[in-house]
């Protein structure tokens, strides 16, 4: 390590003892934080604290202030708040400080979402599920679009289309209503469970269901269990496609 690097490290150390932040000193000197800590590691000055360095008294005080003002905040949220203020400390350093004060609350894992069903089906034509999957027919991409009744597992309607847009979602739902004799007779149309793909969330689709006075139910993001019946259907038929003339 050069004499200049050692002098800079000593300058930062002296400034920290006076209550200044490392980032402020490095910004004044025009030195990157990564460069500073690389020099410090090469010098053998690696701190024993989880964040790679000891917290300054000012940082200790600020962490205490945030925790006292917001007792519900955990260490990561406190670290994010401090970072927006220009105080760059690691989440692990905040955690270590809170642990010494006995302010680390036990983490209670929330109940799995599939243990709280969002639907109750007691008969046919109350809740339908719809989705689509890709097919390769003659080396050309197609999409299989389906509507399935969740109570009976009956395939209510389906279509094979070159692409999927709002008009196809509307058409396959109308096809299901006609097939079940519900297009004109039913006072309340079946609820349709779909994912948050753009054909489902478009204003054209939403307006169509509003005009029909039917409910359009959206599954949560990254929750395939919210449309489990439809997903299971595709999981069952895809191996058969692969073994026949269709390749998914």
Distinctive features:
alpha/beta; elongated; Nucleotidyltransferase, domain 5; five-stranded mixed sheet; 3 domains; 248 residues; 44% helix
User: Helix amount, in percent?
Assistant: 40-55%
Strand order of the largest sheet: 3-2-1-4-5
User: Span between N and C termini?
Assistant: 60 Å
Uncertain stretches: 44-51
Give the mean pLDDT.
85
The tally of helices reads: 10
Question: How many strands, what sense, and barrel or not for the largest sheet?
Answer: 5 strands, mixed
CATH superfamily membership of the largest domain = Ribonuclease H-like superfamily/Ribonuclease H
Under CATH at level 1, the class of the largest domain stands as Alpha Beta
Number of distinct beta strands: 5
Strand proportion: 5-15%
The geometry reads as elongated
Radius of gyration of CA atoms, rounded to a whole number:
30 Å
| CATH architectural category of the largest domain | 2-Layer Sandwich
Total number of domains: 3
Under CATH, the topology of the largest domain is which?
Answer: Nucleotidyltransferase, domain 5
Describe, in plain words, how this protein is organized in 3D.
The chain is α/β, with parallel strands linked by helices and 248 residues long. The chain has helices at residues 3-17, 22-29, 33-42, 57-69, 75-84, 91-100, 166-179, 198-201, 203-212, 228-243; strands spanning 127-137, 140-149, 155-161, 191-194, 216-218. It has 3 domains: 1-46; 51-105; 127-243, 2-Layer Sandwich (Nucleotidyltransferase, domain 5). The chain contains 10 helices and 5 strands; from the N terminus they run H-H-H-H-H-H-E-E-E-H-E-H-H-E-H. Strands 3-2-1-4-5 form a 5-stranded mixed beta sheet. The longest helix is centred in the last third of the chain and has 16 residues, at 228-243. The protein starts with a helix and ends in a 5-residue tail after the last helix. Residues 44-51 have low confidence and may be disordered.
């Amino acid at each position: 390590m050069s004499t200049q690097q050692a002098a800079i490290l000593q300058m930062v150390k002296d400034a920290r003892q006076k209550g200044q932040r490392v980032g402020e000193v490095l910004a004044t000197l025009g030195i990157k934080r990564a460069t500073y800590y690389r020099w410090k590691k090469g010098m053998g000055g690696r701190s024993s604290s989880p964040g790679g360095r000891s917290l300054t008294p000012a940082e200790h005080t600020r962490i205490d202030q945030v925790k006292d003002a917001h007792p519900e905040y955990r260490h990561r949220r406190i670290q994010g708040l401090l970072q927006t203020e220009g105080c760059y400390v690691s989440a692990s350093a905040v955690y270590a400080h809170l642990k010494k004060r006995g302010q680390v609350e036990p983490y209670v894992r929330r109940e799995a979402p599939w243990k709280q069903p969002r639907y109750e089906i007691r008969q046919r034509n109350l809740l339908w599920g719809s989705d689509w999957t890709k097919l390769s027919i003659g080396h050309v991409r197609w999409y299989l679009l389906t509507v399935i009744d969740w109570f009976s597992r009956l395939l209510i309607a389906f279509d094979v289309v070159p692409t999927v847009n709002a008009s196809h979602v509307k058409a396959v739902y109308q096809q299901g209503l006609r097939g079940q004799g519900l297009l004109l007779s039913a006072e309340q149309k079946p609820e349709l469970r779909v994912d948050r793909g753009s054909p489902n969330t478009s204003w054209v689709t939403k307006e169509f269901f509003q005009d029909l006075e039917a409910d359009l139910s959206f599954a949560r993001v990254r929750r395939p269990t919210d449309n489990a019946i439809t997903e299971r259907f595709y999981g069952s038929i895809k191996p058969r496609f692969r073994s026949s003339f269709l390749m998914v």
